[in-house]
Amino acid sequence: MAISSFHPPVRTLMGPGPSDVHPRILDALGRPTLGHLDPLFIGMMDETKTLLKYAFQTSNELTLPISAPGSAGMEACFVNLVEPGDKVLVCVNGVFGTRMIENVTRCGATAIRLDFPWGTAVDPVAVEAALKEHDDIKVLAFVHAETSTGALSDAQALCGLAKKYQVLSIVDAVTSMGGVPLLVDEWQADAVYSGSQKCLSCTPGLSPVTFSDAAVAVIKARKHPVQSWFLDMNLILGYWGEGGKRAYHHTAPVNALYGLHESLVMLQEEGLENAWQRHAAMHTALAAGLESLGIQFVVPAGQRLPQLNTIYIPEGIDDAKTRQYLLANYDLEIGAGLGVLAGKVWRIGLMGYSARMENIILLLNALAAAMSEQGYSSDAASAIAAAEAAVD
């Protein structure tokens, strides 16, 4: 069989990620490839680090993009900071908290699991009680923005508890960077990882990470080698260090880094506060429209992540059939539920370039049509009017 070039359709991506990639970033990806040790490329690497420091709101020297997706950023934080025999308090309020436990176990450490109902934020009171109970914990790990549920936890309070009890903090900010406040230095977070494909509107495949001076000191004082050669920060620093001669570590994904650089330039141009406000406004509009359709949110209003909206599927509506209808008739993607929420919810992303009013109007039209096909009474015009009124 002869295989020809692949030409994907133009989809509107409103699932849990990836989000729509801005045309400027697509253009950047197609620029001429340089060698990964080319002086011009190394100069761009330094700019990318500076831009990431702005996005993280940090002055941490060890701030860089891992050449792999957010899951590798997660692993980089754990394998560098956690050693065999350590104890790690892991807060679980969704799928990605459980992945943290997998990382702890594979490091040969002990995970102390602290569970919270899916669809709710991590409770700092319960976390403090656990820290008091276990006086030999090395790391507190939690998900700032739980992508599987759309719950937003109070990272400032949790990082504050880590400092109070003299433990390190590992923070999953894959879905939060660029969409809600993320203030690494002010909150005194120790290790934070994110992803390129969410609110940065870039392509998947890169994971920004940042480590505090306290975290770097722990990495340098390790008794055991980092179990991952590729993710060993001691080695990566030779390539991503500031200025001067770079030691070869791996062939960086040159064109993907062009895209990340462009996305961070765009974030700087818009301004972090403006980006946060845009995501909040689009969430308000979407929520008004969905509620007009009679659709309920999983997460309580005060704990919702604006850029990842998890909603209950109305009774009598088929999950997979609806999502297939949206793809086939509107080239629109939304996400299915994960874990205990599988088949019960949809996850609607409003991340980065996807957080636009035209996308919300498209979604409300499409969802109303899809549900009407299954006998659900829905008025798209009223839902759109409610969404537009919410941001007037």
UniProtKB/TrEMBL annotation:
Q: Where are the transmembrane segments?
A: none
Q: Name one GO molecular function term.
A: transaminase activity
Could you say which cofactors this protein requires?
Answer: pyridoxal 5'-phosphate
Q: Which UniProt keywords apply?
A: Aminotransferase, Pyridoxal phosphate, Transferase
> Per its UniProt entry, which superkingdom is the organism in?
Bacteria
Q: Tell me the ranges covered by the Aminotransferase class V domain, including all copies.
A: 40-340
- Show the PANTHER family listed in the entry: ALANINE--GLYOXYLATE AMINOTRANSFERASE, AMINOTRANSFERASE CLASS V
Family per record: Belongs to the class-V pyridoxal-phosphate-dependent aminotransferase family.
Q: Can you name this protein?
A: Alanine--glyoxylate aminotransferase family protein
Q: Which organism is it from?
A: Zhongshania arctica
